[in-house]
Design goal:
Blueprint (H helix, E strand, L loop, with lengths): L1 H17 L9 H16 L7 H22 L9 H12 L13 H6 L5 H12 L20 H31 L9 H20 L10 H7 L10 H12 L11 H18 L12 H22 L10 H12 L8 H13 L3 H10 L6 H20 L8 H20 L1 H29 L1
Helix pairs in contact: 1-2, 1-18, 2-18, 3-17, 4-16, 6-14, 7-12, 7-13, 8-11, 8-12, 9-10, 9-11
């Protein structure tokens, strides 16, 4: 062991001489003493457990490196990075009137407009000059309606005016007067008025062949008696004949009913529908003027359906509550500038829709954005959509959660400091291994010499 320490001391002296420090006034005895102490300490050193620290350091370094690379790498399919997006969004936010659109573009729209957005911006500005963004969904019921020509638009406007001023009010007045004769509850929509009229027509046809008492008696057994034997196997032949004779008593004198089963089924359905429209115990009544009101209803129904087609409505006008229908027709009939440049604006809308800008068009119309600002709104929508798409698709960006990034950086510093602090114990352990190895080699050499 002493020879090993002496060998280590000689090695230190040799290295000091190699760098020109052999002339320093260092006492050989003090150097020897310090080295002996150091070697003694090192011989007792144990291997530090650095595996967990090294693994944590590698993981944290990988996450932070991937995050930094994701910031500057181009987004898939685009020639722009997240860092580019943040720079442009910062510039747009510093404008005197910063854009604030909440519209977002789809992936196809992002790719179509990635190389050049100037043409789309010019089309938006042209649409703004024509007044496209002066009207929004809440400003005119004609918003977003497309016509093949200005004449078609004018014709639809005139139809709405005619329905509002004469056709619908006249039908409502005559319809309420007619239904009031029957004790039925007032109809809520034009469609419901049609159901009432068809029901009354069906009851009228039934009463032309049957007495009114047929609507007051239960018809279940009579229907079974005139139906197939398989439907009522428990009904005896005698009872079946008796019920058939009873059914004939409800038929008006001089009337011959060939399809009694179908007629009774129809009357039963009419009675069920009638009872839903009136209070209990009210017998069916046929009002005067039913045919004339039905003809008027058919005409108004057809005109409303025509207007539905022109407007591209998914909810038919005839299905609207009466009060809402009247308000809607008033808005459609009102004089409006929305018809100015209608066809040209529709062509621009179609062109911009092909680029995937429909969400932006709708939002600009709601906010009534001026021509001078639509270009910045487009830029903001594109860059913000790009940023959100990248954050959604690339997990390395950590969802742009700066709190997570700050915590990772703090953890990395702590682990890095722990890793550096283990360098001393690790070196001591390595020196202890080297000294032990040299001591073993020296003892082996002496043993060989003795043997020889």
């Amino acid at each position: 062991m002493v020879s090993a320490r002496r060998s280590t001391l000689d090695g230190v002296r040799h290295r000091l001489a190699g760098i020109g420090l052999d002339s320093l006034a260092i006492s050989p005895a003090s150097v020897r003493r310090d080295l002996v102490r150091a070697i003694g300490r090192n011989e007792k050193a144990v291997a530090p457990k650095v595996g967990d620290v090294d693994d944590a350091l590698v993981r944290l370094r990988t996450v932070l490196r991937d995050y930094r690379q994701a910031l500057t790498a181009p987004v898939a399919g685009m020639d722009a990075s997240v860092l580019d997006a943040t720079r442009h969004l910062t510039r747009l936010a510093s404008l005197p009137i910063p854009p604030s659109t909440t519209a977002r573009l789809g992936t196809d729209a992002l790719r179509r407009l990635a190389a050049d957005r100037s043409e789309a911006a010019q089309a938006l500005a042209h649409a703004a000059r024509l007044g496209e963004f002066r009207f929004g969904p809440d400003d005119s019921p004609w918003y977003g309606v497309t016509f093949s020509s200005t004449e078609a638009a004018r014709a639809a406007h005139e139809l709405a005016g005619r329905l509002h001023s004469s056709s619908v009010p006249a039908l409502l007045e005559r319809g309420y007067e007619l239904i009031a004769q029957t004790h039925m509850r007032p109809f809520a929509t034009i469609d419901e008025l049609g159901e009432y009229l068809r029901l009354l027509q069906g009851i009228r046809d039934s009463l032309d062949r049957f007495s009114p008492t047929v609507f007051e008696r239960p018809l279940g057994e009579l229907i079974q008696a005139h139906g197939s034997r398989r439907d009522a196997p428990g009904l005896s032949g005698a009872n079946r004949r008796r019920l058939r004779r009873l059914a004939k008593e409800y038929v008006r004198p001089g009337v011959h009913v060939t399809e009694m089963h179908e007629s009774l089924l129809r009357i039963q359905a009419q009675r069920t529908q009638w009872q839903r429209c009136v209070e209990a115990g009210v017998a069916p009544e046929i009002p005067l003027g039913l045919a004339d009101v039905y003809v008027a209803w058919q005409r108004v129904q057809a005109e409303l359906a025509e207007l539905d087609v022109a407007l591209g409505r998914r909810e038919p006008l005839a299905s609207l509550p009466v009060a809402r229908l009247v308000r809607t027709l008033a808005g459609l009939a009102a004089k409006s500038d929305v018809f100015e440049n209608l066809v040209e604006r529709a062509q621009l809308r179609d062109r911009l829709a092909l680029l995937g800008l429909e969400p932006l068009l709708a939002e600009l119309s709601v906010r009534h954005v001026a021509e001078s600002q639509v270009g910045e709104e487009l830029e903001f929508a594109w860059w913000q959509s790009l940023l959100e798409r990248a954050l959604q698709d690339n997990r390395a960006l950590l969802g742009a959660n700066t709190a997570v990034v700050d915590r990772l950086e703090r953890d990395f510093r702590l682990v890095d400091e722990a890793h550096a602090a283990m360098a001393g114990p690790l070196l001591a352990w390595q020196l202890a291994n080297q000294c032990g190895s040299r001591s073993s080699t020296s003892r082996s050499s002496r043993s060989i010499s003795v043997v020889r």
